[in-house]
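User: Study the chain.
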Amino acid sequence: MTDDQKTQSAEDPQVRELAEIPAVEVITRSAVMLMSAAAEKLGLGSEDPDDSPHRDLDEARRLITALAGLVTASAEFLGLHAGPLRDGLKSLQLAFREASAAPEEPGHGPGEKYTGPVW
């Protein structure tokens, strides 16, 4: 770390060194970022998701699958955060199914190879 970085860190209590952040917090923040991005790509940030200029189901599929892998692989470390993250993931998977013109069979949707079938 340079002297400038040390000074900036000491001056701004909101700036934290990555090494100081617990793993569960890094994982949870990453999951929340993936959830938020997937929700936007599903159009859920708009009044009418079907007309959202941000809707992109291909991108949403990728984000949901990445989220499923992260949540599944790290569930044992998440403690009380695991349940809400799983619930959020399932909600996104169901929203994806609802938004799809030709929904896949349960077990073949985004992230379901990690979570199992969602219905």
Summary: Residues 44 and 68 are 19 Å apart (CA to CA).
